[in-house]
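Lab notes, practical 5.
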Amino acid sequence: MKTVIKNAAVVSPADGLNGCLDILIENGKIAAVGENLTAENVIDATGLTAVPGLVDMHVHLRDPGQTEKEDILTGCRAAAAGGVTSLLAMPNTNPTTDSPETVRCILDKAKNADARVYVAASVTKGLKSEEPTDLDALREAGAVGLSDDGRPVVNTAYLRNAMNRAPKLGMTVVAHCEDLFLADGGKMNEGEISAQLGVKGIPAAAEDCGTAREIALAAADGVPIHICHVSTATSVALIRDAKRRGVKVTAETAPHYFSLTERELLKRDADYRMNPPLRTEADVKAITEGLLDGTLDAVATDHAPHTPGEKADFVKAPNGSIGMETSFAASHTFLVKTGLMSLEQLVCKMSVNPAKILGIPAGTLAVGANADIALIDLNEEWTVDADKLHGKSKNTPFKGMKLTGRVKMTILGGKTVFES
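Output from the prediction step:
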């Protein structure tokens, strides 16, 4: 059965689309985009904006091994509720995604999920930086990314080898930048607030030194690197300078890094603890400027679910917060509604650019593309109720916050996977 989405405000920067148009879907693909299109099945999108399904290039699905926090199906249900139709799953699972068998297991579980799951396999076995993984075997099994995320690749030689091999294999290295000796088990940003709370801090230099190392490798060998979850002003400056010099570096940040500061930690609520941590007002300003001038290419979430029990103790709780259901709304509220950025620019950051960086078929509404579409009410105001979110865990830093812009329907391969 053919389906037509009628009367949507279509915004697809990759295709030059920006206007009231119909979208015809047939056999899971975009069959036509234009006016006065017809089909037996009609979705009336009057008052809604249609964008290419969002691409979240930084997600922890916790499957295999930690499914009390999240699993592939519940994680993708949360993704669909946030308009995310493609995501990159990080490798710090149990067992680590360091073998072809684990890659294939994840992809097999994801076949019936509400989003397309792409896999980032690890650079080193067990994320220990003691032995490199078999990159050829991981690629053959279906991995498209490489990362030790959750930790940096401490062994620089292993990281350099991965960065040089990845382009030839059609893979993307996505780097967690952190000097573990400087971080030294800290729990939040090192500064005035950590001192006030008497909690050990992580200096911004821990991230900055890692960012500088990855950029140096990319510059020396002329190979690409993608920098994960940028949170500091200095890292933004390093990436900006590297791009000016022609270094093949791309970078992402997350909504909490341009909307929240370390002052949230005064609540002593571990839902505001993540790694890298929330920083200062000056860092928030620098992150925002980096998004606006193109230094930061993408908005991802670093979706990191934990159980309420794990998050109960402010100091002992593991780092991480969930984000897929709030990512568009938070980004729209703080970047577009404030007039800093156009909707087209935000769609580039959340769909077009991540798809390009990962080399996956997404970020477009062109004829022949997968019919992966998010329908959004840009004007709907809603208050984030953690208990009503769709994943297993509820550790959102946006709880209780009023946001503007809400996903009303998500279509994956022509099939409606979320509707509110």
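Observations recorded by the TA: The mean pLDDT is 98. Residues 204-221 form the longest helix (18 residues).
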